[in-house]
């Protein structure tokens, strides 16, 4: 840095010394030719002017190029704007096309005339007061109606169950005695399910539903396949499954010989070389569909009907009544006819147990009008009836004494039954009522189901159904519901499956949906008059009486 300061000082001193004003004029050196200096200065000035002219020309050329580029930029901007406008119109046209397509699909089935006047979102009650502002009878009226009309009508349910069970035991024992263990199906003991065994049966005559599990003869066994085990299952097949009939010597899934290459000197004692499956061998499995290893529901129903007929002929002489089939399409629908003219119906339903769980595959279910039919005869409906019975029994132990949960279900089922007789069956059934109750039991505290809250819980149950109807969404209680207690022992595959919407038929069938909604509100409208008609008039001073527990 010191060297730099020295150089600056040296330059300054040199400039001061060489400045012309510091010397006398006579000692200065004057150029000999001043004209030459002036000429050089003029030449330098001309050069500067030429450079100025060149710069001006350059600026003018650049300005001209800029003016020429402006129309091109404007044209490009206009093209971009037109492209954006074209994209917008394309999007609007696509949206309009989709709206038209959805409207066409909704109306291609020929909706009823009342649906043509407005959209389904205009259904009454969707945005109004709950239950359209309709009020139910008070607590005293409901209690009296329950004691008078429901409890008294179902008092002989225990005797009916006892009689039917005794007869079915004898019938199945006769069926077993006629079967060949080497070629025929093996029938196991029956299982009581549904309302008669859950203590909420209302309709007369009392109806017992009995599951009859059966197993194939040796060396065959059943291999169930749930719908949730496959990723590409249509929506209409959710909740169904198939049952593959497999020979014991052909099923190597659980044996190491099917996964490991054995040496020439090693032999599997279960699956020897003589028992290996031949690629072209024809399947001869019992009750299977043609050219298929899967069990056929039609073949099972035909076999079961013939087996019951033979068993009855074997023991008919022991009884003083006749046994007949109630419905041709349901082979297990039986009817006991007494000589007095009375009759007692019951259902024997052939089922197959799903592995070691309480799930059962059923060939038919004689209950829900809106339930879809299977797409194939090899599709079996999965029933949770045993799990439902276990859940209600487990929940009842935690509820207060005389809880009103079954009373709510019985009253709602009674109203639905009477309305169905007035206006015909709709898409709403007792199974939907029970599903709604199961959801509420899981969501509500145990203390909320005291006997004194019968009117409040019944109102909540009907409001839950109304909301589910208007949204067209009522999820199955067990399928995909991870809130179900693990103590139920539900298979993990079913717990983790996608929730199943029981109201899905309403999305596809608008006429059925409209009829169901109208019938539901008509039922609510008729409920007060219907309850008063089936019960004795209650004096006004009874409203102040202490609340009485409802014991089931």
From TrEMBL:
Its main location: membrane. InterPro entries: ITPRIP-like, Mab-21_HhH/H2TH-like, MAB21L/cGLR. Residues 426-480 form the Mab-21-like HhH/H2TH-like domain. Keywords: Cell membrane, Coiled coil, Glycoprotein, Membrane, Nucleus, Signal, Transmembrane, Transmembrane helix. Residues 1-15 form the signal peptide. The keyword Membrane applies. SMART domains: Mab-21. It comes from the Eukaryota. Residues 38-65 form a coiled coil. It is found in: Cell membrane; Nucleus outer membrane. GO terms for molecular function: protein kinase inhibitor activity. GO terms for cellular component: nuclear outer membrane; plasma membrane. It is a single-pass type I membrane protein. Belongs to the ITPRIP family. Enhances Ca(2+)-mediated inhibition of inositol 1,4,5-triphosphate receptor (ITPR) Ca(2+) release. This is Inositol 1,4,5-trisphosphate receptor-interacting protein.
């Amino acid at each position: 840095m010191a060297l730099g300061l020295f150089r600056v000082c040296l330059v300054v001193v040199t400039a001061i010394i060489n400045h012309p004003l510091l010397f006398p004029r006579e000692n200065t050196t004057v150029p000999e030719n001043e004209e030459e200096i002036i000429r050089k200065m003029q030449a330098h000035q001309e050069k500067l002017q030429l450079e100025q002219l060149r710069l001006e020309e350059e600026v003018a050329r650049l300005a001209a190029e800029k003016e020429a580029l402006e129309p091109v930029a404007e044209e490009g901007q206009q093209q971009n704007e037109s492209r954006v406008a074209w994209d917008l119109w394309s999007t609007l046209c696509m949206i309009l096309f989709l709206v038209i397509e959805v409207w066409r699909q909704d109306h291609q089935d020929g909706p009823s005339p009342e649906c043509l006047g407005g959209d389904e979102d205009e259904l009454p009650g969707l945005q109004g007061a709950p239950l359209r502002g309709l009020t139910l009878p008070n607590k005293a009226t409901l209690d009296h109606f329950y004691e008078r009309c429901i409890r008294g009508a179902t008092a002989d349910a225990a005797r009916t169950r006892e009689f039917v069970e005794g007869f079915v035991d004898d019938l199945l024992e006769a069926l077993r005695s006629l079967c060949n263990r080497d070629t025929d199906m093996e029938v196991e003991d029956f299982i009581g399910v549904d309302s008669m065994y859950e203590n909420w049966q209302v309709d007369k005559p009392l109806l017992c539903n009995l599951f009859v599990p059966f197993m194939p003869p040796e060396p065959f066994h059943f291999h169930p396949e749930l719908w949730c085990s496959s990723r590409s299952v249509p929506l209409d097949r959710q909740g169904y499954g198939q049952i593959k009939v497999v020979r014991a010597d052909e099923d190597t899934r659980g044996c190491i010989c099917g996964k490991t290459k054995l040496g020439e000197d090693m032999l599997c004692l279960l699956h020897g070389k003589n028992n290996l499956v031949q690629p072209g061998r024809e399947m001869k499995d019992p009750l299977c569909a043609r050219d298929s290893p899967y069990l056929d529901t039609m073949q099972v129903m035909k076999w079961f009907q013939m087996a019951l007929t033979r068993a009855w002929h074997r023991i008919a002489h022991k009884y003083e009544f006749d046994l007949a089939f109630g419905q041709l399409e349901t082979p297990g629908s039986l009817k006991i006819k007494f000589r007095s003219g009375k009759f007692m119906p019951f259902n024997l339903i052939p089922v197959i147990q799903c592995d070691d769980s309480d799930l059962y595959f059923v060939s038919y279910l004689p209950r829900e009008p809106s339930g879809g039919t299977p797409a194939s005869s090899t599709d079996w409906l999965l029933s949770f009836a045993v799990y439902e019975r276990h859940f209600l029994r487990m929940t009842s132990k935690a509820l207060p004494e005389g809880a009103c949960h079954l009373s709510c279900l019985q009253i709602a089922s009674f109203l639905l039954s009477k309305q169905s007789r007035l206006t015909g069956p709709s898409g709403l059934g007792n199974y939907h009522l029970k599903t709604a109750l199961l959801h509420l039991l899981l969501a509500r505290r145990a203390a909320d189901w005291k006997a004194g809250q019968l009117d409040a819980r019944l109102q909540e149950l009907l409001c839950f159904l109304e909301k589910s109807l208007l949204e067209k969404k009522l999820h199955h209680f067990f399928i995909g519901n991870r809130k179900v207690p693990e103590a139920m022992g539900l298979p993990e595959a079913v717990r983790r499956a996608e929730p199943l919407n029981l109201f899905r038929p309403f999305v596809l069938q608008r006429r059925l949906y409209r009829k169901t909604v109208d019938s539901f509100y008509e039922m609510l409208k008729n409920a007060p008059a219907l309850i008063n008609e089936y019960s004795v008039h209650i004096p006004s001073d009874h409203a102040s009486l202490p609340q009485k527990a409802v014991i089931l």
